[in-house]
Design brief:
- With 145 residues, the protein is mainly alpha-helical.
- The chain has a domain of 68 residues: Flavocytochrome C3, Chain A, domain 2.
- It contains 4 helices and 2 strands.
- It is elongated.
- The chain starts with a helix and ends in a 15-residue tail after the last strand.
- One of its GO terms (cellular component) is periplasmic space.
- Keywords: Electron transport, Heme, Iron, Metal-binding, Periplasm, Signal, Transport.
- It is found in: Periplasm.
Length: 145
Amino acid sequence: MNKPTRTGLTALIPVLLLGGFALAQSAQVETLRGADVDELIPLEQIHKNVEGRMQRNYRQQPPLIPHSVEQYQIDTRTNQCLSCHDWTKAGERNAPTLSMTHYLDRDGNELDHIAGTRYFCNQCHVPQADAPPLVDNVFQPSSGN
């Protein structure tokens, strides 16, 4: 490449970068939640928890949580879900017992305690909420066939 071409390209690169930056700054991006990232929105305005059990939409869907879990601690030291739902306490607390699959290790061996692979409940289970969809959804529940 000759020197004048290289000089021209070197001069063009900053212009293109600045033009691209200006274009990116002028683009209007709308958020799914309808507010700026740093804007605090009370949860009550986003959704309301639904009491009682909701019907599952498909086979093998993890059950939804029919109560608030806002203050529940679930970390490597504590899992407050187990204070009611572990098989040793569920009867006296009138809570559903965990499925026996939660007491199987990855090799299928039965354990006396919840398996580490099932310890963090909110990986699969979420609170039920009457929340508007963020995107259009055409999912249809299975017919049971």
